[in-house]
Amino acid sequence: MPPSSSRRFLFLALLSAHLAAPAAAAAATGTGDAAAMQALRRELAPPGWGPGVDHCAWRGVTCSPAAAGGPGAVTAIELPRRGLRGDFSAAGALPALTRLDLSANSLRGGVPGSLGSLRRLEFLDLSMNLLTGPIPAALSGASSLRFLNLSNNALSGGIPGELGRLGKLQELQISGNNLTGLLPSWLAGLPALRVLSAYENSLSGAIPPGLGLSSELQVLNLHSNALEGPIPSSLFQLGNLQVLILTLNRLNGSIPDGIGRCRGLSNVRIGDNRLSGAIPASIGDATSLTYFEANTNDLSGGIPTQFARCANLTLLNLAYNRLAGEVPEVLGELRNLQELIVSGNGLGGEFPRAVLRCRNLSKLDLSYNSFHGELPEDICNNGSRMQFLFLDHNGFSGGIPTGIGGCTRLLALQLGSNNLGGQIPAEIGKVKSLQIALNLSFNHLVGTLPRELGRLDKLVTLDLSSNEISGQIPGDMRGMLSLIEVNLSNNRLSGAIPAFGPFQKSAASSFSGNAKLCGDPLDVDCGSIYGSNYGMDHRRISYRVALAVVGSCVLIFSLVSLVVALFMWRERQEKEAEVNKAEAGEVVVAAPEVVASTVFIESLQQAIDFQSCVKATYKDANELGNGAFSTSYKAVMPSGMVVCVKKLKSVDRTVTHQQTKMIRELERLAHINHKNLVRPIGYVIYDDCALLLHHHMPNGTLLQLLHNDSNADGEKQKPDWPRLLSIAIDVAEGLAFLHQVATIHLDICSGNIYLDAHYNALLGEVEISKLLDPSKGTASISAVAGSFGYIPPEYAYTMQVTVPGNVYSYGVVLLEILTSKLPVEEEFGEGVDLVKWVHTAPARGETPEQIMDPRLSTVSFAWRRQMLAVLKVAMLCTERAPAKRPRMKKVVEMLQEAKNS
């Protein structure tokens, strides 16, 4: 072979080997990936994985394009919120992996150090699991990491120094763990760091000096640790910071003047520290500022007028510092301000009328200061959105302005411990929204109690103690139906305390200090104070009242008799009209041909007539309820038996033509032996309709019990907490059983909870979970989320009905029981449902007892104690993060504990 030919051959051979190398490597990688993916499938058993060998087709898996001679390499595994548990260390054997998201599952054990071998890994999210142990130093080997989230686990130990090698890291989130030790100094040297979140740990020491100088740090959240030292001025040096949250630490020093360099700074929360000095005037340069909280520090000086330049400022909380001077008038220019909280300072001057120009102001807290002078008459001008007005512990004088009646949205009014005089204005009765508290104690109020107080039917706490109020307690105060706590002590009240539950259940100290007051709960007999004439006058008045009552009863009886007579006459006329119509030839709708029908229970086969079931669905008068997937009707059989007929709303040929599969599912459910599940007794198929037959439940549904004045038989309902608690436990046990047999309910709501003759609760529409679940391929329906108001928040982006989603829906039912409110009501406000209304109660200043239905919670302390325990369970069930919600088996245990408490 000539030399040139030899060289050409050698070149082609080398070129072929070079081109074949990637293919061989890819083939080897594909083979290795297959083994790792099969190991992950065995350990985690994710839904949608296997049993096929093509792991690239599994749900949540992304592969690179297939190379010659083998499958593509696995580049991403994204399985958030799948209920996974088990060992996932096999993921460390996927060398091409760039994204791994296993957040919001139930993973236990430690963070696998094997993940550090993934040189291409850029995104790792293991947040919201149950991981324990230290953060492995081996993670530093994943040198391409840009996003690392280990938040909301139970990790312990310190932050490994080796992680400082992750030079590309942009987001480090390790909050909500049990981490200890110092914040490492290498954090200040990460050039790409934008987000550092390490809140709710036990970290100590100082915030690393220089943090923010080497990177474009935008978010720093370190609240709820034990950090000390100053706030580094380096955080503001480059002007990139947007969010700074350092509350609940031990930081000292002053607020750096450079804070104004951050024009995009929107959120500053530095409360509950030991900061001192003045608030820098440069704060006005942070024109994007929305929230500024610096409460509970040792700040001094005045409130900077420069805050007025922050046009977006929504919340300004400077409470419990050593601020002096007056509230700047220019703060009235803050049109977006909703909360101004300056309590617990040394502020003075007259009432800052200028802040009333803030049209969105909902909370004004000037308490525990030295304000003086009279309160403005227009304290709640037209269109006021004021909900919380705290002016107590000041030196305000004059009278309570009659303009207080314009505070139509007010929830709490605190005017105690001032120098207010005059009478309580009758206009106070116009503030029907007052719910949390009305406190006028320790003033110099005189005159009698206005009868209009009785209009405050939502008020829970009333304190009028230590004034000079005289006269009798008006009987109209019985209209305060929600009242739990009352204090009228140390006044000049006289006469008998009206017979009213909240009064008699109060301690005697609530009425003490009134020399001429008598009756329960005071141990003072009215006769001993007013003599026998009082008793005679009282009997004379009672006699007159009795005569008036008897006369009224006679009149009412006469009117009712007349109405009943008219009703019977009209009913007779309608029946005669129907007879005449029948004689003239009534048009009868032909019943459709029944394609298939079955009764599963042999003893009922002779009692059920299928044509009667079909005809019952033609009349609106027979309708019992309308759910997300079916409409229920009451059907009376010729035998006299009453049956509940459910007409499925979304049925296609898969159901009506594949009868064998449908019958098999229904028969299986018909023989489920659980006392808290509604079981089908048969079905009817005609045309394109499917009817499911059930036993009739004489006491209707939980929805009717909670929100109707009468039950299915027209009998008046009385609030009964033991019965409601028993119903809640019944439903929880039924749902726990469903989850045990791997069945997820599609529509948990109070309208699908049925009550039998003894008020035992049965969860309905269980079979619809099998017949209409699109994942089972048995039918196609447009929405499977459930009823409005019960849908878990994660459904919006997962579009999957899950076990944690069922727990959330059940939690809504618990809240519905506790509050007697529907899941969605106008009173909550736009965009707010029952869950959000309850969870945000602390922010509104409401206690748990103020959320619950007072008709139940005020009956006895035992009921109230059990309701508070159940409220805790409901709060857990409706946690926004699915991983934080308990399993239904645990819910049953907690409810049983509440019942036995």
UniProtKB/TrEMBL annotation:
**GO cellular component annotations of the record:** membrane
Q: Where in the cell is it found?
A: Membrane
Q: Does the keyword Repeat apply?
A: yes
Q: Could you provide one GO biological process annotation from this protein's UniProt record?
A: plant organ development
Q: How does it sit in the membrane?
A: Single-pass type I membrane protein
Q: Which species expresses this protein natively?
A: Urochloa decumbens
- Residues passing through the membrane, by range: 545-569
Write the signal peptide boundaries. Answer: 1-25
Q: InterPro entries this protein is in? A: At_inactive_RLKs, Kinase-like_dom_sf, Leu-rich_rpt, Leu-rich_rpt_typical-subtyp, LRR_dom_sf, LRR_N_plant-typ, Prot_kinase_dom, Ser-Thr/Tyr_kinase_cat_dom
Q: Which UniProt keywords apply?
A: ATP-binding, Glycoprotein, Leucine-rich repeat, Membrane, Nucleotide-binding, Receptor, Repeat, Signal, Transferase, Transmembrane, Transmembrane helix
This protein is called Protein kinase domain-containing protein
Respond yes or no to whether keyword Hydrolase is given for this record: no
GO MF terms, alphabetically ordered = ATP binding; transferase activity
Give all residue intervals belonging to the Protein kinase domain: 618-901
